[in-house]
Design a protein that fits this description.
The chain is mainly beta. Helix content is about 15%, strand content about 40%.
Length: about 375
């Protein structure tokens, strides 16, 4: 064979090698498509998805295909891996994985059925570390994860328990019905931090309801804990040995898995809304003008919101109305009260009212404060 023939043969072998299909490894072979039933009946139409929590608490959804007449249509490995967010896939938290089935419903409710939280790769102290799943590991684990949605009726057939009718009665502290209260419910996933921030799947799973004249709301959903978005007040610890108690604004509430529940709360700020008079003078008794009154309000979790609610006039007086606040509150909900220069209230505080002074303000509706050695 001459040099030209040998070169052509080598080129042909190279082209064949490049064009030949890559062998599919066992970890990338197509999966068997299971069937999913709901209450013993094939799901007529639905969606199957994998959720995992990425670094920083971001929830990532990976669609696993539609469900038609109970039959799933799982993606190929190529389709699955291309759906993963490459950055989050390298550093997701394996202690936060769920398989979810979404089924259309005829009445308001949670038509999302989720597996238990999957945490196979996390052990003890490793919980705080990001366990790294490869795309191949996640793909091969899908059949086992999907099987945890319900009970295996027969090989390849998974039955999810039927949804139930949930009834919630909202009541005031005096046991009367809380009518017209808005409440939004969604599947409970988990609280992301010590402040109680909830990580949810997506926004479209929310069931938005309003209580009737009996204070009742109803919705369909699996017999699992739910997470409610609802506005109410909670009593924080009293300050200064009982001198004053603070009502904090709350927005969320975890509900148990029971189908019938009663929620009794303080829904509105206690006390009577009224105007308050506060005067700030210097050591000579002269009013200090140009000051800003800043209210700090305790809110859900461990947050505090601040708001400028008035400015002092030439006599050093603040005329403060409850309506000045961005939400309908009164001073029973003020956690802290401070005065600052009007043009620097977010950075510099001249004086902070103590709890006895705020209690006096709430009781009598007025308060005079003398500031000594004021310099600008």
């Amino acid at each position: 064979m001459n040099l030209h023939s040998r070169s052509f043969a080598a080129f042909a072998i190279l082209v064949f090698t490049l064009l030949a299909p890559r062998p599919v490894s066992a970890s990338e072979a197509p999966l068997t498509n299971p069937k999913i039933f709901l209450a013993g009946t094939p799901i007529a139409e639905g969606k199957l998805a994998l959720y995992y929590v990425g670094w920083g608490g971001d929830v990532v959804r990976v669609d696993l295909g539609p469900i038609w007449a109970g039959q799933t249509h799982l993606p190929s490995f190529t389709e699955f891996s291309s759906s993963l967010d490459a950055e989050k896939e390298r550093r997701n938290w394996a202690d936060a994985l769920w398989i979810v089935v979404q089924v259309p419903g005829e009445m308001p409710g949670i038509q999302w059925f989720q597996s238990p939280q999957l945490s196979e790769k996390v052990k003890g102290a490793e919980l705080a570390q990001a366990a790294r799943w490869s795309a191949q590991e996640m793909y091969r684990a899908l059949p086992k994860w999907i099987a945890q949605l319900g009970v295996m009726r027969s090989p390849g057939v998974i039955n999810i328990p039927a949804p139930v009718l949930h009834s919630i009665w909202l009541k005031n502290l005096d046991s009367t019905a809380r009518a017209g209260q808005e409440i939004t419910v969604q599947p409970y996933v988990y609280n992301s931090n010590h402040c109680g921030g909830h990580v949810s799947f997506r926004r479209e799973e929310l069931a938005k309801l309003t209580s009737d004249f009996e204070g009742k709301v109803q919705f369909m959903g699996p017999l699992l804990p739910t997470w409610a978005q609802i506005s109410y007040l909670s009593l924080r610890d009293a300050y200064s040995e009982g001198e004053r108690a603070v009502w904090a604004s709350e927005e969320t509430l975890k509900l148990s898995a029971g189908p019938a529940q009663i929620i009794t709360r303080q829904w509105e700020a206690p006390g009577v809304a009224r105007d308050y008079q506060i005067a700030v003078v210097d050591e000579h008794g002269k009013g200090i003008s140009g000051l800003t009154l800043v209210a700090f309000q305790a809110i859900s979790g461990c947050g505090i919101s601040s708001e400028a609610i008035g400015e002092s006039d030439s006599s050093g007086r603040f005329g403060v109305e409850d309506s000045r606040l961005s939400v309908p509150l009164n001073f029973e909900m003020i956690d802290m009260l401070k005065v600052s220069y009007a043009d620097a209230w977010q950075a510099e505080h001249l004086y902070e009212f103590n709890d006895v002074e705020i209690a006096e303000l709430i009781r009598f509706g007025s308060l005079n404060v003398r500031l000594v050695d004021i310099r600008r």
